[in-house]
Amino acid sequence: MTTTRMELVCPAGTPATLRAAVQAGANAVYCGFRDETNARNFPGLNFSRDELAEGVRFAHDHGSKVLVAINTFARVDDVDIWKKAADAAAESGADAIIAADFAVLGHVAKNHKQIRLHLSVQAAAATPEAIGFYAAQFGVRRVVLPRVLSLQEIAALNRAIDVETEAFVFGGLCVMIEGRCYLSSYATGKSPNLNGVCSPPQMVSYDEEPGGTTARLSGFTIDRYERGQPVGYPTLCKGKFKAGGRTSHLFEDPVSLNAGGMIAGLKAAGVTALKIEGRQRGKGYVSEVVRAFRKAVDAVEKGGEPVDIGRLLAGQSEGARQTAGAYEKKWR
Amino acid sequence: MRPPNAEPMLPGFVRQLFPAVAGLPLGPLLTLSLRSLARRRPSLFERLGESRSACFGIDPVDLAFAFRVVPEGQRSSVRVVSKDEAARSDVQIKGPLLTLLGLLDGTLDGDAMFFSRVISISGRTEAVLALRNTIEDAELRPADLLGLHGILARYVDTGVLGALSVARRLVDKNPSGAREA
Ligand code: SF4
Fold first, then answer.
1. CB contact under 8 A, B126 and A281
2. pTM above the 0.90 mark?
3. Which CATH superfamily is domain B12-178 in?
4. How many Å apart are CA A92 and CA B7, to the nearest integer?
5. Ligand 1 centroid from CA A187, angstroms
6. Is residue A2 situated within a structural domain?
7. Is the pLDDT score of A53 beyond 80?
């Protein structure tokens, strides 16, 4: 079991959300630049160079850290965009860069030794050998764990490596190997981990039709909603499709991750940091989730009664249904 | 209790008053206030990216008229238009006036209002998303739109936000208003 206090790492899509997350009790906030170098490249989201520098000042004044995600994979003819983003993150005084691409990792390791390197979940490194390689080659200090490992596997992994681990505890789930999504690339012609978007909004439409609303992505029907029924964002893998004469959530139910009940287990498994997903979410959502997790983490750190996070956050998860994901794999 | 997706409409008598408001030069006044906001906070409009030149049709369903807004920084424009004209914009956002105002000042969450169908959106989704994220970050107060500062701004913010919250409570207590529409 780790003796240091676990770090709560929270999302920020805009400067206002960064401030909200810090004020709600985030130990660290992660964010990205307003371009294709980060895996949440949505219109109106993310930070300019100046906004990042200001955000870093605000976070540091309040005792929080800023981690900058430059975590998409660089294009062979444009690696400079990614390198320049890393230079700007280092200049801003941020505490760490979260990256997955060898070009970015190598560039930071060589030119910005003062800034920590965290291995993005996009690298999907889940074995001591893979993690050891990144640590030896680039001096990676922390690895964000792919959402496919059970608690036992995380504990075994932590015993075999000497870098910190960060585990997702709340938010959306992706059924592919962390963004390597042929489904989305096929339908939209864009790759989540090259262009930083899954279900790009310019390809999304909500069409009012006689029977209700149809949500489409790139012309493909993803879901239909009766009049007045709550609608969802058309994420391909969470859509309803017809197969074998039956209409169902063919790939994945629209559930989201809530490992709020596993904080003590994750600590016992040697995890250093807990990550909340959702840089695309608003500041109201981020404040509420961060506040709830702050309470829960503090309770675990004090050895007190666990906090019922499901009750605190009822209604804040996608489709209002939650899962503890792979952490609770029972079938092994 | 109001069903989750019922629209909190303005009571009938308030709606009756609005045709008089329509007589005011609302469009030019709002245009001026948007342009002055762009002078004071240019980064806010930069966040909109390419969607700055998109035309947003804002249709408060409890009013007899709608707005066409092009948020192009210092060249922004707001026009009072018919509902039909608003429906021909790049993006159409429809909802009860108090909800739309609540989105603007951040009292209400845009995602929640959209996914629960209190507001409806059609047209260019990327422009809607850019606008939603921009408003989220802007933390606009009524005084920002009026270009006020200092103590006067504080009074105006408290007064306007207080009045809006009272209006929302009144409307919430009068669910029949939702069915009147
Ligand atoms: S469509 Fe689903 S599986 Fe594919 S990248 Fe998006 S969330 Fe992941």
1. no
2. no
3. SCP2 sterol-binding domain (3.30.1050.10)
4. 45
5. 11
6. no
7. yes
Whether the ipTM is more than 0.90: the answer is no
Q: What is the pLDDT of residues A56-113, one digit of tens each?
A: 999 999 999 999 999 999 988 899 999 999 999 999 999 999 999 999 999 999 999 9
Categorise residue B61: left if φ over 0, alpha if ψ from -120 to 50, beta otherwise: alpha
| Facing residue for A43 by CB, picked from B117, B133, B139 | B133
pLDDT of A235-281, one tens digit each? 888 889 989 999 998 888 877 888 999 999 999 999 999 999 999 88
Q: Where among A201, A218, A248 does a domain terminate?
A: A248
Q: In chain B, which residue's Cα lies nearest the Cα of A45?
A: B133
B46: buried, middle or exposed (CB in 10 Å: 19+, 13-18, 0-12)? Answer: middle
At position A237, the amino acid (one-letter code) is C
Nearest to B117 among A50, A228, A233 (CB): A228
**Domain match, A194 and A56 both:** no
Q: Are the CB atoms for B115 and A230 separated by under 8 Å?
A: yes
Atom of ligand 1 lying closest to residue A176 CA: 3
Asked if residue A39 has its Cβ within 6 Å of ligand 1, the reply is no
- Binned at pLDDT 50, 70 and 90, residue B7 comes out as low
E strands in B5-116: 56-60, 66-70, 77-81, 91-95
> Phi, psi (5° rounding) for residue A249?
-75, 90
Query: Do B51 and A44 lie within an 8 Å CB cutoff?
Result: yes
Q: Is the CB of A179 under 6 A from ligand 1?
A: yes
* Secondary structure letter of residue B119 according to DSSP: S
Contacts of B159 (CB under 8 A, 6+ apart): none
